[in-house]
Design brief:
The chain is of the alpha+beta class. The longest helix has 26 residues. Helix 2 packs parallel to helix 5.
Length: 329
């Protein structure tokens, strides 16, 4: 099955061919958190079902950023930054997701939760009524106020893809399963971004600004995505009534380190550790230029990318487990 991602089809591969590639050793190695889980949050809301000691996790989704861009305009100038990811093949991001899901279950158990096995929750009354897709990797594109992002949505092997909408889904089956299992359903939604992409200088104050600026800064991190209800970061849906535990840390959850190379069409590729680029429509003594652009093609090293992606996901897992433990009754 052929599938194409990225900007203008720049990220393309054959899933069957990718599956034949050897997977990185870091997928089987212990995951070391890149930092202590943050304790400060900008929002912390619990709604819907209570958090019990017994939990089951029939849905877990990781959104891998595969392209990102941003653009800002003033009255006479435009600055843009466009990036695309290459080398994060389907088999690789699927294996990362599988490992991150297992890590989440391990961290729940370590925090004193009893995790209902898939065999048990699948056999429970109501489970056969759950609505879920085949679990294939899907691409979702979003845009908002000059920002553009595309994500590969990945689910653990054996778990289907739940419908994503502003309205809660599977409420009836989950209500039944919660009762018969005496367990709370959890459905985490996490992200792996490969760069911070920004643009500024537009908007109502553009007429007095120094021009427009755009930039990209490489860095694996769990961080915000743009768009609507279903793609908000830091969300773990909790049980029935459409409840969810939502929290946003101050900043992003970083996994520092080089994970490949960046090429921009100007000279040879450089390490992602030094691959940042910024442009400005104000060019000093020459005054304004009408357009300034920065482009970056990120070619990942599978071993490094897997290690850092797992660190970013494990940190998101731990933050979620900590918040669930606080809410447990």
């Amino acid at each position: 099955m052929k599938w194409v991602l990225g900007v203008a089809g720049m990220w393309a591969c054959m899933a069957g061919a990718a599956a034949a590639q050897p997977l990185p050793a870091s997928l089987a190695a212990p995951i070391v958190l890149p930092s202590q889980p943050p304790a400060k949050f900008t929002r912390n809301i619990l709604a819907g079902d209570k958090v019990r000691t017994r939990v089951f996790v029939p849905s877990y989704r990781v959104s891998f950023m595969v392209s990102a861009g941003a653009q800002a305009r003033t009255t006479d100038t435009t600055a843009s930054a466009d990036t695309v990811l290459s080398g994060a093949e389907p088999a690789l991001i699927q294996a990362i997701t599988d490992r991150a899901y297992a890590d989440f279950l391990e961290r729940l158990a370590a925090a004193g939760f009893t995790v209902v096995t898939p065999e048990e929750w699948r056999a429970a009354a109501g489970a056969d009524q759950l609505k879920a897709g085949a679990g294939d990797i899907e691409i979702q594109k979003m845009g908002n106020l000059g920002a553009r992002q595309a994500y590969a949505l990945v689910h653990p092997t054996g778990l289907g893809s739940w419908p994503e909408s502003a309205m809660p889904v599977n409420l009836g089956p989950v209500r039944t399963m919660t009762r018969v299992l005496d367990a709370t359903m959890l459905a985490p939604r996490f992200t792996v971004n490969y760069a911070h992409v920004k643009a500024s200088g537009g908007g109502p104050m553009a007429i007095v600004s120094r021009g427009a600026q755009a930039s990209f800064q490489p860095g694996i991190h769990g961080g915000p995505v743009i768009g609507g209800f279903s793609m908000e970061p830091w969300r773990v849906r909790v049980g029935q009534h459409g409840g969810f535990l939502e929290y946003k840390v101050d900043g992003s959850l970083e996994a520092p380190g080089a994970f490949g190379s960046v090429s921009s069409g100007r000279g040879p590729a450089v390490s992602t550790a030094a691959g940042a680029r910024a442009v400005d429509t104000w060019s000093g003594r020459l005054g304004y230029v009408s357009h300034a652009s920065a482009t970056g093609r990120f070619e990942v090293d599978p071993e490094a990318y897997a290690r850092l992606a797992l660190q970013a996901l494990a940190l998101q897992n731990q933050v979620a487990v900590n918040e669930l433990a606080k809410a447990r009754r």
